[in-house]
Amino acid sequence: MAAWAAVIFVASTGWFAGPRTESMVLPVLAWLFPHADHETLLLLHAGVRKLGHFTEYFVLGVLIARALRDERGWQLHHALMAVALAGSYAVTDELHQRFVPGRTAAAGDVVIDTLGATAAQIVLALRWPSRP
Across residues 44-55, what is the average pLDDT? Predict the structure, then answer.
């Protein structure tokens, strides 16, 4: 779990600022969508970046839930705690980005991150049996 939090921290550095990922992602998007204009490719790039947020925190949500899980299987209070912890880390991640040149803090990203962690709990609730 700590290793994944470190991955998220690194993804919040200037190495993964919009212009840097744009230079890598836009050529791939242009190849996938050869008839798309530049503005459409920029919108797709923004979507890929937001999907990255969702995915990072989906994984974090799973890892936190696994760390909290006990012999009773999936429990609502563990899921709520996992979402709260992931959401709290998302807030600190955005605060970190506020001080990184080329990055900005965005409340919308915290929402996307928390939705990722919440989606993870829903998937886990469907996969893990719950025992009293």
Answer: 93
